[in-house]
Amino acid sequence: MAAEIHSRPQSRRPVLLSKVEGHQDAVSAALLIPKEDGVITAGEDRTIRVWLKRDSGQYWPSIYHTMSSPCSAMAYHHDSRRIFVGQDNGAIMEFHISEDFNKMNFVKTYPAHQNRVSAITFCLASEWVISTGHDKCISWMCTRSGSMLGRHYFTSWASCLQYDHETQHAFVGDYSGQITLLKLEQNTCSVITTLKGHEGSITSLWWDPVQRLLFSGASDHSIIMWDIGGRKGRTLLLQGHHDKVQAICYIQLTRQLVSCSADGGIAVWNMDISREEAPQWLESDSCQKCEQPFFWNIKQMWDTKTIGLRQHHCRKCGQAVCGKCSTKRSSYPIMGFEFQVRVCDSCFESIKDEDRTSLATFHEGKHNISHMSMDISRGLMVTCGSDRIVKIWDMTPVVGCSLATGFSSR
């Protein structure tokens, strides 16, 4: 069911430590058990499994539990060993795992949603289980009584969730590409603001409460960093993936962002650097370089007896330009453009060779990735997806491995 992968560490690359196989369908979520050589997985095959590493080096399931509906999301609280499993039918089930990780006892069922559960978080301080679902809502329920405390509805499927335990603020991403910031109360909530910047559905969120930064990944292949704590409300755009960004994790200690995409791409972004904010795209009826009219500018076309041109935008300055004034392509990592994008000819001339030096490293996971989780203290990462394979990675060659940066030896 499981096979150990022996691979020699290569310089500055994630090292594949193990492959865990056995699920009969897509693996929805996988979590590393803190301080243990173990993984908890939830799958579309309706199973929850706890895999422990044996003396042979292989991972074998110590717990194999079948649910009534496909498993779609999971949250695990290690100190209390409570696990919350969201299902395709909208229910969330709570279990308690024994100290030796060989038994899992059913605790409660929460009727949280009317449709597939997309994300769950558990807050021990308030004893709330908070979740989002494809019934277009966020719900928060009391884990003591099992009763519903509140719900808030959105205009489209709620796809991902992050929660600030101290301030009781929830960030919810949805399929329309919008992120909503809510303040949750005991039986009500208030909408603080909405964040709009992505051109596709929000697939993943990560909240760093220390620096008060929110990171969002989307189906438009991009990541946006929202400076929630900063007064200027800065946003940074990161473009380096070639498929939808499925999972993100920000390592506050080393100021690095790890992101994974559906095509197996794993990126590690250096955020400990002064980056430039991408400009807003300017609107114009004619090219802002040569003043030739765009094709909808009928009056200028008539007056100048010229055929209108197609409008483009320079990614560096944001100006509206025609094709003839933007013939060049260039990467510009300081603005988040890790691969070549359209720039106007004058901006191309201003970009020096050293400006094209990458500020991220890119690696190949070699399997479909729909979910990723990290144990930052050990520098470990687990990835899983529709190929039914769970992979465990040593990320320390890429994200730092000394005690000075917070990673301990295993």
Automatic annotation (TrEMBL):
Gene3D superfamilies: YVTN repeat-like/Quinoprotein amine dehydrogenase, Zinc/RING finger domain, C3HC4 (zinc finger)
Main location: other
SUPFAM superfamilies linked to this entry: FYVE/PHD zinc finger (SSF57903), WD40 repeat-like (SSF50978)
WD repeat windows: 20-51, 195-228, 238-279
Signal peptide: none
Pfam families associated with the record: FYVE, WD40
Biological processes annotated in GO: positive regulation of toll-like receptor 3 signaling pathway; positive regulation of toll-like receptor 4 signaling pathway
Keywords: Endosome, Metal-binding, Phosphoprotein, Repeat, WD repeat, Zinc, Zinc-finger
Xref: SMART domains: FYVE (SM00064), WD40 (SM00320)
InterPro entries for the chain: WD40/YVTN_repeat-like_dom_sf (IPR015943), WD40_PAC1 (IPR020472), WD40_repeat_CS (IPR019775), WD40_repeat_dom_sf (IPR036322), WD40_rpt (IPR001680), WDFY1/WDFY2 (IPR042234), WDFY1_FYVE (IPR042733), Znf_FYVE (IPR000306)
Gene Ontology CC entries for this record: early endosome
Domain FYVE-type: 281-352
Compartments (UniProt record): Early endosome
GO molecular function: zinc ion binding
Purpose of the protein: Positively regulates TLR3- and TLR4-mediated signaling pathways by bridging the interaction between TLR3 or TLR4 and TICAM1. Promotes TLR3/4 ligand-induced activation of transcription factors IRF3 and NF-kappa-B, as well as the production of IFN-beta and inflammatory cytokines.
Protein name (record): WD repeat and FYVE domain-containing protein 1
Species annotation: Ptilonorhynchus violaceus
Recorded name of the encoding gene: Wdfy1
